[in-house]
Amino acid sequence: MGDTVTVRSARSTEGEALVSSVNAPRREPADVLLDKLAAIRLKVSCEAPLAGTDIADPGIMDWQGEATLSIRPGDDESSAGWWTHANAALSAEDIGSGGLKFQVLRATGLVVDLWSVQDVFTALKARNQDYAEFLPLFGGRGSFGQLTLAEELDDMLEPGGGRVVIMSRVLLAPAWHGLRGIGSLLVARLLRWLTDDARVVALRRFPAEPNEQDADIPEIHGPAMNQAQHIWRSLAFEPFTDQVWIMDPRMSAHHQAVQSLAGQLGLTQPDR
Hints:
Shape: globular
Number of domains: 1
Oligomer: single chain
Order of helices and strands: EHHEEHEEHHEEHEHEHHEEH
Protein backbone atom coordinates (compact mmCIF):
# COMPACT_ATOMS: atom_id res chain seq x y z
CA MET A 1 0.00 0.00 0.00
CA GLY A 2 1.24 3.48 -0.86
CA ASP A 3 3.54 2.23 -3.65
CA THR A 4 3.69 4.57 -6.63
CA VAL A 5 4.21 3.34 -10.17
CA THR A 6 4.54 5.18 -13.45
CA VAL A 7 1.72 4.61 -15.91
CA ARG A 8 3.42 3.01 -18.89
CA SER A 9 0.53 2.00 -21.10
CA ALA A 10 -3.15 2.53 -21.70
CA ARG A 11 -4.02 -0.87 -20.22
CA SER A 12 -2.45 -1.69 -16.87
CA THR A 13 -2.82 -5.24 -15.62
CA GLU A 14 -3.55 -3.80 -12.17
CA GLY A 15 -6.39 -1.73 -13.56
CA GLU A 16 -7.84 -4.51 -15.69
CA ALA A 17 -8.17 -6.65 -12.59
CA LEU A 18 -9.82 -3.75 -10.80
CA VAL A 19 -12.45 -2.65 -13.30
CA SER A 20 -13.89 -4.33 -16.35
CA SER A 21 -15.68 -2.15 -18.89
CA VAL A 22 -16.23 -4.80 -21.55
CA ASN A 23 -19.99 -4.45 -21.35
CA ALA A 24 -20.01 -0.66 -20.97
CA PRO A 25 -21.28 1.57 -23.82
CA ARG A 26 -18.47 2.78 -26.08
CA ARG A 27 -17.80 6.50 -25.61
CA GLU A 28 -15.35 9.07 -26.90
CA PRO A 29 -12.27 9.52 -24.65
CA ALA A 30 -12.91 13.26 -24.18
CA ASP A 31 -16.48 12.64 -23.01
CA VAL A 32 -15.33 10.01 -20.53
CA LEU A 33 -12.63 12.26 -19.07
CA LEU A 34 -14.89 15.30 -18.81
CA ASP A 35 -17.46 13.23 -16.91
CA LYS A 36 -14.87 12.70 -14.17
CA LEU A 37 -14.27 16.38 -13.34
CA ALA A 38 -16.41 16.48 -10.22
CA ALA A 39 -14.45 13.53 -8.79
CA ILE A 40 -11.04 15.21 -9.08
CA ARG A 41 -9.32 15.87 -5.76
CA LEU A 42 -6.78 18.63 -5.21
CA LYS A 43 -3.91 18.41 -2.75
CA VAL A 44 -1.29 20.99 -1.76
CA SER A 45 1.66 20.05 0.48
CA CYS A 46 3.97 22.69 1.95
CA GLU A 47 7.31 22.50 3.73
CA ALA A 48 9.56 25.18 5.22
CA PRO A 49 12.67 25.02 7.44
CA LEU A 50 12.53 26.21 11.02
CA ALA A 51 15.90 27.94 10.70
CA GLY A 52 18.77 28.19 8.28
CA THR A 53 20.26 30.22 5.44
CA ASP A 54 20.52 30.15 1.66
CA ILE A 55 18.34 27.31 0.32
CA ALA A 56 17.07 26.69 3.88
CA ASP A 57 15.85 30.27 4.35
CA PRO A 58 12.96 30.01 6.86
CA GLY A 59 11.09 32.77 5.02
CA ILE A 60 10.59 30.58 1.93
CA MET A 61 8.22 27.63 1.76
CA ASP A 62 8.32 24.93 -0.92
CA TRP A 63 4.96 23.67 -2.15
CA GLN A 64 3.81 20.76 -4.28
CA GLY A 65 0.32 20.40 -5.70
CA GLU A 66 -1.51 17.65 -7.52
CA ALA A 67 -4.88 16.74 -8.99
CA THR A 68 -5.90 13.10 -8.69
CA LEU A 69 -8.71 10.70 -9.54
CA SER A 70 -9.32 7.40 -7.75
CA ILE A 71 -11.05 4.23 -8.89
CA ARG A 72 -12.30 1.37 -6.72
CA PRO A 73 -13.96 -1.97 -7.31
CA GLY A 74 -17.61 -1.51 -8.14
CA ASP A 75 -17.26 1.90 -9.80
CA ASP A 76 -19.78 2.67 -12.53
CA GLU A 77 -18.61 0.72 -15.58
CA SER A 78 -19.87 3.36 -18.04
CA SER A 79 -17.20 5.81 -16.85
CA ALA A 80 -14.68 3.71 -14.93
CA GLY A 81 -12.61 2.96 -18.03
CA TRP A 82 -11.38 6.55 -18.41
CA TRP A 83 -7.94 5.63 -17.11
CA THR A 84 -7.41 3.06 -19.90
CA HIS A 85 -7.05 5.85 -22.48
CA ALA A 86 -3.42 6.43 -23.42
CA ASN A 87 -1.65 9.11 -21.34
CA ALA A 88 -4.66 9.68 -19.09
CA ALA A 89 -2.45 9.84 -15.97
CA LEU A 90 1.08 10.74 -14.96
CA SER A 91 1.36 8.04 -12.30
CA ALA A 92 -0.73 5.54 -10.36
CA GLU A 93 -0.69 4.71 -6.65
CA ASP A 94 -2.11 1.68 -4.87
CA ILE A 95 -4.54 2.99 -2.23
CA GLY A 96 -5.49 -0.41 -0.84
CA SER A 97 -8.64 -2.54 -0.98
CA GLY A 98 -8.18 -2.93 -4.72
CA GLY A 99 -8.22 0.80 -5.45
CA LEU A 100 -5.86 3.00 -7.46
CA LYS A 101 -5.24 6.74 -7.35
CA PHE A 102 -4.19 8.38 -10.62
CA GLN A 103 -2.32 11.67 -10.78
CA VAL A 104 -3.48 13.83 -13.70
CA LEU A 105 -1.63 17.05 -12.84
CA ARG A 106 1.32 18.05 -10.66
CA ALA A 107 2.88 21.43 -9.95
CA THR A 108 5.68 22.82 -7.79
CA GLY A 109 6.71 26.22 -6.55
CA LEU A 110 7.54 28.51 -3.62
CA VAL A 111 5.88 30.96 -1.28
CA VAL A 112 8.10 33.87 -0.24
CA ASP A 113 7.12 35.71 2.95
CA LEU A 114 8.22 39.30 2.39
CA TRP A 115 8.35 39.96 6.14
CA SER A 116 10.47 37.00 7.22
CA VAL A 117 12.67 36.05 4.25
CA GLN A 118 16.34 36.68 4.96
CA ASP A 119 18.04 36.69 1.55
CA VAL A 120 15.73 35.85 -1.33
CA PHE A 121 18.42 36.42 -3.96
CA THR A 122 20.81 33.84 -2.51
CA ALA A 123 17.97 31.42 -1.73
CA LEU A 124 16.57 31.41 -5.26
CA LYS A 125 19.95 31.21 -6.98
CA ALA A 126 20.91 28.32 -4.68
CA ARG A 127 17.97 26.28 -5.96
CA ASN A 128 18.27 26.28 -9.76
CA GLN A 129 18.09 28.48 -12.84
CA ASP A 130 14.30 28.16 -13.00
CA TYR A 131 13.94 29.95 -9.68
CA ALA A 132 16.70 32.44 -10.48
CA GLU A 133 14.45 33.75 -13.27
CA PHE A 134 12.12 35.14 -10.58
CA LEU A 135 14.81 37.40 -9.05
CA PRO A 136 13.65 40.50 -11.00
CA LEU A 137 10.43 40.42 -8.97
CA PHE A 138 12.21 41.63 -5.86
CA GLY A 139 13.71 44.92 -4.71
CA GLY A 140 15.45 46.01 -1.51
CA ARG A 141 14.38 46.43 2.09
CA GLY A 142 11.55 48.71 3.15
CA SER A 143 11.47 51.13 6.05
CA PHE A 144 10.13 48.41 8.37
CA GLY A 145 12.66 45.79 7.28
CA GLN A 146 10.38 43.92 4.91
CA LEU A 147 11.54 42.76 1.48
CA THR A 148 9.98 44.96 -1.17
CA LEU A 149 9.03 44.19 -4.74
CA ALA A 150 10.80 45.72 -7.70
CA GLU A 151 9.45 49.24 -8.19
CA GLU A 152 8.13 48.51 -11.67
CA LEU A 153 6.22 45.48 -10.38
CA ASP A 154 4.92 47.28 -7.31
CA ASP A 155 3.43 49.96 -9.57
CA MET A 156 1.47 47.27 -11.46
CA LEU A 157 -0.25 45.87 -8.36
CA GLU A 158 -3.04 46.87 -6.02
CA PRO A 159 -1.95 47.49 -2.40
CA GLY A 160 -1.97 44.67 0.14
CA GLY A 161 -0.53 41.25 0.76
CA GLY A 162 2.76 40.12 2.23
CA ARG A 163 3.68 37.05 0.19
CA VAL A 164 4.85 36.16 -3.32
CA VAL A 165 3.52 32.88 -4.72
CA ILE A 166 5.71 31.30 -7.40
CA MET A 167 4.82 28.39 -9.67
CA SER A 168 7.94 26.98 -11.30
CA ARG A 169 6.75 23.74 -12.91
CA VAL A 170 3.44 22.17 -13.93
CA LEU A 171 2.65 19.01 -15.87
CA LEU A 172 -0.76 17.82 -17.11
CA ALA A 173 -1.33 14.28 -18.40
CA PRO A 174 -1.49 14.54 -22.23
CA ALA A 175 -4.97 13.02 -22.55
CA TRP A 176 -6.38 16.03 -20.66
CA HIS A 177 -4.86 18.61 -23.01
CA GLY A 178 -7.37 20.63 -25.01
CA LEU A 179 -10.40 19.52 -22.99
CA ARG A 180 -12.13 22.91 -22.80
CA GLY A 181 -9.57 24.38 -20.41
CA ILE A 182 -9.56 21.77 -17.64
CA GLY A 183 -5.78 22.18 -17.20
CA SER A 184 -6.20 25.94 -16.71
CA LEU A 185 -8.93 25.38 -14.14
CA LEU A 186 -6.87 22.84 -12.18
CA VAL A 187 -3.91 25.23 -12.00
CA ALA A 188 -6.12 28.12 -10.90
CA ARG A 189 -7.87 26.06 -8.23
CA LEU A 190 -4.53 24.83 -6.85
CA LEU A 191 -3.21 28.37 -6.67
CA ARG A 192 -6.35 29.49 -4.84
CA TRP A 193 -5.25 27.50 -1.79
CA LEU A 194 -1.87 29.27 -1.79
CA THR A 195 -2.83 32.88 -2.41
CA ASP A 196 -4.17 33.95 0.97
CA ASP A 197 -2.35 37.22 1.70
CA ALA A 198 -0.51 37.03 -1.64
CA ARG A 199 0.88 40.27 -3.04
CA VAL A 200 1.45 38.71 -6.45
CA VAL A 201 1.40 35.32 -8.18
CA ALA A 202 4.23 34.64 -10.62
CA LEU A 203 5.02 31.79 -12.99
CA ARG A 204 7.40 30.96 -15.78
CA ARG A 205 5.89 31.67 -19.19
CA PHE A 206 6.52 28.02 -20.12
CA PRO A 207 6.50 26.06 -16.85
CA ALA A 208 6.14 22.62 -18.41
CA GLU A 209 8.54 20.02 -17.11
CA PRO A 210 11.59 19.89 -19.35
CA ASN A 211 11.77 17.55 -22.33
CA GLU A 212 15.16 18.03 -23.91
CA GLN A 213 14.22 16.29 -27.14
CA ASP A 214 11.10 18.40 -27.74
CA ALA A 215 12.95 21.60 -26.77
CA ASP A 216 15.25 21.08 -29.75
CA ILE A 217 12.36 20.70 -32.21
CA PRO A 218 10.87 24.12 -33.14
CA GLU A 219 7.74 22.50 -34.64
CA ILE A 220 6.91 21.08 -31.20
CA HIS A 221 8.34 23.63 -28.79
CA GLY A 222 7.06 26.73 -30.60
CA PRO A 223 3.34 25.85 -30.65
CA ALA A 224 3.55 24.55 -27.07
CA MET A 225 5.05 27.86 -25.94
CA ASN A 226 2.32 29.83 -27.72
CA GLN A 227 -0.39 27.67 -26.20
CA ALA A 228 1.03 28.14 -22.70
CA GLN A 229 1.06 31.91 -23.11
CA HIS A 230 -2.54 31.84 -24.35
CA ILE A 231 -3.52 29.92 -21.20
CA TRP A 232 -1.85 32.44 -18.90
CA ARG A 233 -3.47 35.39 -20.65
CA SER A 234 -6.87 33.72 -20.30
CA LEU A 235 -6.26 33.58 -16.51
CA ALA A 236 -5.34 37.30 -16.35
CA PHE A 237 -1.57 36.78 -16.14
CA GLU A 238 0.60 39.28 -18.00
CA PRO A 239 4.30 39.41 -18.91
CA PHE A 240 6.70 41.03 -16.46
CA THR A 241 9.98 39.83 -17.98
CA ASP A 242 10.71 37.64 -21.00
CA GLN A 243 10.45 34.56 -18.80
CA VAL A 244 8.10 35.52 -15.95
CA TRP A 245 4.38 36.32 -16.02
CA ILE A 246 2.50 37.80 -13.08
CA MET A 247 -1.08 38.07 -11.80
CA ASP A 248 -2.53 40.43 -9.21
CA PRO A 249 -4.79 38.29 -6.97
CA ARG A 250 -6.57 41.41 -5.73
CA MET A 251 -7.91 42.29 -9.16
CA SER A 252 -11.21 40.74 -10.24
CA ALA A 253 -10.06 39.71 -13.74
CA HIS A 254 -8.49 36.43 -12.61
CA HIS A 255 -11.41 35.38 -10.43
CA GLN A 256 -13.92 36.22 -13.16
CA ALA A 257 -11.92 34.20 -15.70
CA VAL A 258 -11.81 31.17 -13.40
CA GLN A 259 -15.51 31.44 -12.61
CA SER A 260 -16.35 31.62 -16.32
CA LEU A 261 -14.14 28.61 -17.08
CA ALA A 262 -15.74 26.56 -14.30
CA GLY A 263 -19.19 27.41 -15.68
CA GLN A 264 -18.20 26.32 -19.18
CA LEU A 265 -17.12 22.98 -17.76
CA GLY A 266 -20.40 22.53 -15.90
CA LEU A 267 -18.90 23.15 -12.45
CA THR A 268 -21.35 25.68 -11.12
CA GLN A 269 -19.90 26.31 -7.64
CA PRO A 270 -18.79 29.97 -7.64
CA ASP A 271 -15.05 30.71 -7.47
CA ARG A 272 -14.45 33.67 -5.16
